[in-house]
Amino acid sequence: MDLENRITENLKFLREKISDAERRSGRPSGCVKLQAVSKFHPLDAVLAAVNSGQFLFGENRVQEAVQKFEKLVHTEKKIELHIIGALQRNKVKNSIAIASCIESVDRIELIAEIEKQCSKVEKKIDVLFEVHTGEESKSGFRTTDELEKVLLYCAEGNAPHVCPKGFMTMAPFTKDESLIRKSFCDLRNAAEKMQRHYPDFPLKELSMGMSNDFQIAIEEGSTLVRLGTAIFGEREY
């Protein structure tokens, strides 16, 4: 099976699995978005996914994202790119040039830099706040107090070009489903608390769930799942 057919079949299978999880959880059909994580995969794989009707992508590394998406996001208006990896301040300028959302905001200093760069080009950008709920190797806000501080910073008008939309997390790498489920439940609970405290922000996006745990994430309230290997396979081309 060639690359495009394989990716088409994988996307069809995953969309069915997402629909099944929505239905099983009593959630509306189509409430969960599928993001194709294309890190380490070539432009040909991205184009194959696009040809299969996939338009939302996630990239971890800014330099790689620029190489693949700089022209694509301007020539194909349907394509939307999210930056999902740890982001250094010196990479923000290039990120906002190609992305519609930065999902990995993990500190106030990063918000300040995003605002600085967006204000220069008069662009508004969506952000998700990364919350540490279990995966030890990952960064992120560790307490609701820390989330309160960054949301208050935004609410006080310090970052008018930054649009908070919700939260992102990564579950621990474990076969223990209870730990995975707890990680997603913790994010949902933190999000609900922040929604009550900051009703002026539409903090509805919950980016959680990857290739190995996305169905659990949907059951726990995910609105966006980040799938890479399940779509593109292991890096073999």
From TrEMBL:
Tell me where in this chain the PTM N6-(pyridoxal phosphate)lysine is found: 39
Which UniProt keywords are present, listed alphabetically?
A: Pyridoxal phosphate
Q: Which domain of life is it from?
A: Bacteria
Ranges for the Alanine racemase N-terminal domain? 13-235
What's a single GO MF annotation on this record? pyridoxal phosphate binding
Q: Which cofactor does it need?
A: pyridoxal 5'-phosphate
A Pfam family annotated for this UniProt entry: Ala_racemase_N
Among InterPro entries, the record links this protein to:
Ala_racemase_N (IPR001608), PLP-binding_barrel (IPR029066), PyrdxlP_homeostasis (IPR011078)
- Report if keyword Lipoprotein is assigned: no
Q: PANTHER family of this UniProt entry?
A: PROLINE SYNTHETASE CO-TRANSCRIBED BACTERIAL HOMOLOG PROTEIN, PYRIDOXAL PHOSPHATE HOMEOSTASIS PROTEIN
Q: Which family does it belong to?
A: Belongs to the pyridoxal phosphate-binding protein YggS/PROSC family.
Role of this protein: Pyridoxal 5'-phosphate (PLP)-binding protein, which is involved in PLP homeostasis.
The name this protein carries in UniProt is Pyridoxal phosphate homeostasis protein
Source species: Treponema parvum
